[in-house]
Design goal:
single chain; 901 residues; alpha/beta; 8-stranded mixed sheet; 21% strand
C-alpha cells in the first residue's frame, strides 16, 4: 500500500520534520518506523511510504529535528489516527500540527471514560473509487449525544433534517466520516451538529459559518484523509462537584475498623446518588515500617507501587474453613468497627493475621489461575523487590536496609534466590505478592465501577518517599540521602515542615527522561482517572533541610542561586560571618526564651565564646543532638541532674536556628538568607538600615531572583509527567508560591488548587471565589487544615472578618457555626467558576446540624505542625446510613443541580 503524508509547518533554518508511524493490523501485530519528510519551501513537508497491505489502524505523529536532536514534538496524547479499510491500495493524508489545546482536560480519561464517554464506532465505507475521509476533534459533544454533519451534497444529506450523516467516533474526541468524491457536484458546504444519541433529534449546531471544502486532488482508487478544524458548540463550561475522604476513614457495616476498597466502591454509590462526579482520596500505598501507629502517616510510603494491606476488603474473599477462627475474626471485626477512630495497630495486626490464614488456605489454588499469572507477569519488576523488602524488613525487624545482615545493597540475583521454590523466604515473598494481587483486583473493580457510574476516582501522588523504602533500596542513584525534604514556614507551621524524605537527584532522573516518574504515573493510571500532585512546588524547587536539623527553618531551596558575599554587601549589609552564620546567643535572648531555667541552660548546654556571646556545647550543637539528648534523658533519668524538659528542648532548637544566613550545601562560600529570619532574635540585633537592607535582600531572593530559573527547572520535568498518562492533572500549589508557578500551570493546562482562606493574591484577606480560574479545584479545607467548622472556631476575629467581608453579613459571627451559615459557604463554592468543587465529607455534612459530628475538632485529619500526628479519623456514620438518608441526599443533589455542577 502506498501512503503519502503532508503537513504544513514553518520550520527554521537547520530544522527538518520526521514522521513516527505505528501500524496495528487486525491480528494485533504492530510495526513501527521513522522517516524524514522533504520540503522545497520549508513550510509544506511531504513523504511517501510503502506500507504492508494490512487492514487496521495507522497511528503517527510529527516532530521537529535539528540534526539528531528533537526540538519540538506534537501533543503526544492525540496521535494522528487513520482507519484503513480492507482492499485499500493508496492513501494520502493532509494533516495539521497538533498542539496542547486550551481544553486539554476534555481529552483526559476523566472525560473520555466517565464524564462524557463515547464508545468507539466503525465508519461506514461509501461506494466509489475516490474517497475523502474528514477527521476532526469535537471534544464538547455531550455524553448523551453524537456528532453528525449536514451539507449541500447528496452524500451529506442535502441540508435535509432527518438525513444527517452520523460520524464515527474513532477515539479520544476524534470523529470521522467518509465522502464519495465521485458523486460530488460543485462547491462543498457543510456544518457539524449533535444529535440525541437515542432519538436522533437535532440538539446543537456548531458556532461558525458553513465550512467550505477545498477538494484535494484525489486519484482513482485512492482514499484521502483530511484534518478539519475542531468543532465547538454552544455549551457552558463543564463543572462538577465531588467528595474528599481518605480510604482509611470510610466506614461501612462490613469494614474491619478501617476503610477498604469494598467501602470505596460503596462510597461511589453515594457520590453518584447525590450528583457528584469525583471521589478524591489520600495516598493508599504501603507505609508499613514499624507496625506501630506512627505508620498511619500515608505520605511516608515504603513503595510507590504497592498498596497498604489494610485496604483489602476481607468480606470479598473466601471464608476461613476453620469455623472457630472465622467466628473469632468476625467478633473482632465487630469490635474494631464499633470504634470511633482507627486503631491502626490492632486493625493491622488482625487483618494481617487473617490474610496469612487465608494465604495458607487459598494460595495453591490462586497460584495456578490465569489472572494471578497475568498480574505477576505484568508487575514483577516492582512486585518482587517489594515482597523481598517486606520479608527482609520482617526478618531483621527494621526497614532500614543499611542495618540488614544480608542484601543491605540490592542485588537482583540474590533476591531471585530468595524466591526460589522450597526456601522459607519464598513462602513469605509469595504472601506479599498474594496480598498485592487481592488489592489490585479489588481496586480495579472499584475503578471500573466508578467509570460505569460516571464517577472519577482521584488519586494522590506524594512528593516524597521514605528513605527506608523499596525505591531507596533498589534505585538509590535517583535520590539524595544527605538531605531531608520539607516545606518552609507557613501559617500552619511556624518552624516549617520536615518530612524526612530524601530529595530527588533530578540530574539522574532527567538523564533517562524521568522514567522513574513515568512508570509511577502509568501504574496509577490503571486505577485512577485524575490525580493530585502533592506539593507541585517541589518540581520547581524543593525545600532541602540538612540531616542535622529537626525543624525546617535551616533549609534552603534546591536547586537555587545562592548569593556571594559581594552580592549580599551590594544591598547595604556589611558581611559579618560569625554574626550571621552561627547561632546568635546573648543574655537577653537566653532570658527571653528560658526564663527561670536560664541558669540551668547556661550550666549544662552552653558556653561563652567572647564579646558577650554564647555557643552551644559540642554535645548539643545541632538539633539532632538535642533531640537525641532529650530522648536519652527521658528514657533513663539521672539522679544527679534534671531531665531536659520539652520547653528547654524547643528553646535549644530555637537557638540553633537563630542565624541570618545558611551556607549553600554545595558551595560553602555562598549563602542563602535564612527563611523568615525577620521574625527571629538575630534580625533584631541589626541596625535599622541593616534591617531594611536584609528585608530587601530576603524578598528579592525568595520572590524575584529565581522566577526564570525555577520556571526552566519545572519545564524540564512537568511536561513529561503531565503527558505520561491521560489522567486529569490537579496540582496542590499552596504555600510559598513563586510567580513562575502560574506560568507553568497555564502552559501545561494543569488545574490549580484554590482555597478561600488561603488567597494567592497577597492583597486579599480572603480569596474572591468569582475570580477562581476555570481550570482549578475549589475547596474549603484540606486534610492538613481544620474543617470548615473547626477553622471557624480557631480565631474568632478572623471568623468575624470572614462573616462581614467575605459573606457580606452584618453583626457578630455566630459560634459555633450554624448549619445555615455552613450552607452559605458551600453554596458560594458551588457557584464559583472552578471546574471542580471538591469538599471533604465533613464539610458537606456541616450544613446539617442533626447529621454532622458534634465535635469539629475530632473531624480533623492531620496537624502538619505535629510530625508524629496519628492519622485515624473515621466518618461517624456508615456509608449505608448515608445512602439511606433520603432527606439529606435530596438536598445535596438539588444544590449540585441548582448550581449546574
Amino acid at each position: 500500500m502506498k501512503a503519502c503524508f503532508e503537513i504544513h509547518y514553518r520550520t527554521q533554518w537547520g530544522e527538518h520534520l520526521e514522521l513516527q508511524l505505528r501500524q496495528t493490523a487486525e491480528d494485533g501485530k504492530t510495526t513501527q518506523r521513522t522517516t524524514a519528510l522533504d520540503t522545497i519551501d520549508g513550510e509544506v513537508w511531504r513523504t511517501e511510504l510503502t506500507l504492508p497491505n494490512a487492514v487496521g489502524r495507522l497511528h503517527y505523529s510529527y516532530r521537529v529535528m535539528e540534526g539528531r536532536e528533537c526540538k519540538r514534538e506534537e501533543w503526544s496524547l492525540t496521535p494522528h489516527t487513520l482507519v484503513v479499510a480492507a482492499g485499500t491500495t493508496r492513501i494520502a493524508a493532509t494533516d495539521q500540527w497538533r498542539v496542547l489545546p486550551d481544553d486539554a482536560y476534555r481529552y483526559t480519561s476523566s472525560f473520555t471514560e466517565a464524564f462524557a464517554a463515547h464508545p468507539v464506532t466503525t465508519m461506514p465505507t461509501p461506494e466509489g473509487k475516490k474517497q475523502l475521509v474528514i477527521h476532526l476533534f469535537a471534544p464538547e459533544v455531550p455524553a448523551d449525544q453524537t456528532l453528525a454533519v449536514l451539507g449541500n451534497q447528496e452524500g451529506l444529506g442535502n441540508w435535509q433534517s432527518g438525513r444527517e450523516v452520523r460520524l464515527a467516533h474513532i477515539g479520544l474526541n476524534e470523529w470521522a466520516f467518509a465522502l464519495n468524491l465521485d458523486s460530488v457536484q460543485g462547491a462543498v458546504e457543510y456544518k457539524f451538529l449533535t444529535l440525541d444519541a437515542a432519538t436522533g433529534e437535532q440538539r446543537l449546531w456548531e458556532m461558525r459559518d458553513n465550512r467550505i471544502l477545498v477538494l484535494p486532488a484525489v486519484e482513482q482508487g485512492m482514499t484521502h484523509y483530511l484534518q478539519d478544524p475542531p468543532a465547538y458548540f454552544p455549551v457552558t463550561p463543564w463543572r462538577g462537584a465531588g467528595c474528599v475522604i481518605p480510604v482509611f476513614s470510610l466506614r461501612t457495616e462490613h469494614t474491619y475498623g478501617v476503610g477498604d476498597f469494598g467501602a470505596l466502591r460503596k462510597m461511589i454509590d453515594w457520590v453518584a446518588l447525590t450528583g457528584q462526579r469525583v471521589l478524591q482520596i489520600l495516598p493508599i500505598n504501603d507505609t508499613t515500617i514499624t507496625n506501630r501507629w506512627t505508620d498511619s502517616y500515608p505520605y511516608n510510603s515504603i513503595s510507590i507501587y504497592a498498596f497498604h494491606p489494610m485496604y483489602v476488603d476481607l468480606s470479598q474473599l473466601p471464608v476461613l474453613k476453620d469455623a472457630s477462627l472465622a467466628r473469632h475474626y468476625e467478633e473482632l471485626r465487630v469490635e474494631l468497627n464499633a470504634l470511633s477512630q482507627v486503631d491502626y495497630e490492632r486493625v493491622n495486626e488482625a487483618k494481617r493475621a487473617y490474610l496469612r490464614l487465608l494465604f495458607k488456605q487459598e494460595w495453591p489454588r490462586t497460584l495456578g489461575t490465569k489472572n494471578y499469572k497475568e498480574f505477576y507477569q505484568q508487575n514483577q519488576d516492582w512486585l518482587v523487590p517489594y515482597a523481598a523488602f517486606s520479608y527482609l524488613r520482617d526478618t531483621y525487624g527494621t526497614p532500614d536496609f543499611r542495618q540488614w545482615k544480608t542484601l543491605s545493597e540490592y542485588d537482583a540475583d540474590s533476591v531471585a534466590l530468595l524466591c526460589k521454590k522450597g526456601r522459607k523466604s519464598a513462602g513469605e515473598i509469595n504472601f506479599y505478592c498474594y496480598v498485592q494481587y487481592l488489592l489490585h483486583v479489588q481496586l480495579s473493580a472499584a475503578s471500573q465501577y466508578a467509570r460505569s457510574r460516571g464517577v472519577v476516582i482521584k488519586g494522590d501522588i506524594p512528593i516524597g518517599i521514605s528513605r527506608n523504602s523499596v525505591e531507596a533500596w533498589v534505585e538509590p542513584h535517583y535520590f539524595n540521602m544527605n538531605g531531608q525534604a520539607g516545606a518552609p514556614p507557613d501559617p500552619f507551621s511556624a518552624n516549617g515542615q520536615n518530612w524526612g524524605f530524601p530529595t530527588y537527584n533530578w540530574d539522574a532522573m532527567l538523564c533517562d527522561g524521568c522514567q522513574w516518574w513515568v512508570r509511577r504515573f502509568r501504574k496509577m493510571a490503571e486505577y485512577f482517572d485524575a490525580y493530585r500532585i502533592d506539593h507541585v512546588l517541589g518540581f520547581f524547587r524543593i525545600w532541602e533541610i540538612p540531616l542535622h536539623s529537626v525543624h525546617g527553618l535551616l533549609g534552603q531551596f534546591s536547586p537555587a542561586l545562592p548569593m556571594t558575599v559581594e552580592e549580599i554587601e551590594s544591598y547595604g549589609l556589611p558581611w559579618r560571618e560569625s554574626d550571621y552564620t552561627t547561632p546568635y546567643i546573648d543574655d537577653h535572648i537566653l532570658l527571653d526564651i528560658f526564663g527561670d531555667q536560664t541558669a540551668e541552660v547556661r550550666r549544662r548546654y552552653i558556653e561563652t565564646c567572647g564579646n558577650g556571646r554564647y555557643c552551644l556545647r559540642s554535645d548539643y550543637d545541632t538539633q539532632r543532638k538535642v533531640e537525641a539528648a532529650f530522648a536519652a534523658d527521658n528514657a533513663t533519668p539521672r539522679a544527679d541532674q534534671p531531665r531536659m524538659s520539652e520547653a528547654v528542648r524547643d528553646g535549644l532548637y530555637a537557638l540553633l536556628s537563630n542565624v541570618l544566613f545558611v551556607r549553600d550545601r554545595k558551595n560553602a562560600y555562598t549563602y542563602h538568607p535564612r527563611i523568615a529570619a525577620m521574625d527571629d532574635y538575630v534580625f533584631q540585633q541589626l541596625s535599622y538600615s541593616h534591617k531594611e537592607a536584609f528585608r530587601r535582600l530576603h524578598d528579592d531572593y525568595y520572590y524575584r531572583r529565581h522566577n526564570q530559573f525555577w520556571y526552566a527547572e519545572a519545564m524540564k520535568k512537568l511536561p513529561v509527567l503531565a503527558q505520561a498518562t491521560r489522567m486529569l492533572v490537579c496540582a496542590e500549589d499552596l504555600g510559598m508560591v513563586p510567580a513562575c508557578v502560574p506560568w507553568v500551570m497555564e502552559e501545561l493546562k494543569v488545574l490549580t488548587l484554590e482555597i478561600q482562606s488561603m488567597p494567592k493574591n497577597p492583597s486579599y484577606a480572603f480569596g474572591h471565589l468569582w475570580e477562581n480560574p476555570y481550570r482549578s479545584v475549589a475547596t474549603i479545607s484540606t486534610h492538613d487544615m481544620a474543617t470548615l467548622r473547626g477553622w471557624w472556631d480557631e480565631d474568632r476575629e478572623i471568623a468575624r472578618q470572614f462573616y462581614n467581608d467575605a459573606l457580606y453579613l452584618d453583626g457578630a459571627a455566630p459560634h459555633p457555626m450554624p448549619g445555615w451559615l455552613a450552607e452559605q459557604v458551600i453554596v458560594r463554592h458551588l457557584e464559583c467558576p472552578s471546574m471542580l468543587c471538591l469538599l471533604s465529607l465533613q464539610d458537606w455534612l456541616s450544613m446539617d446540624e442533626q447529621r454532622r459530628y458534634p465535635d469539629p475538632a475530632a473531624e480533623r485529619i492531620n496537624v502538619p505542625a505535629n510530625p508524629r500526628h496519628y492519622w485515624r479519623y473515621r466518618m461517624h456514620v456508615t456509608v449505608e446510613q448515608l445512602l439511606a438518608d433520603t432527606e439529606f441526599n435530596d438536598k445535596l443533589a438539588s444544590l449540585i443541580k441548582k448550581y449546574r455542577r
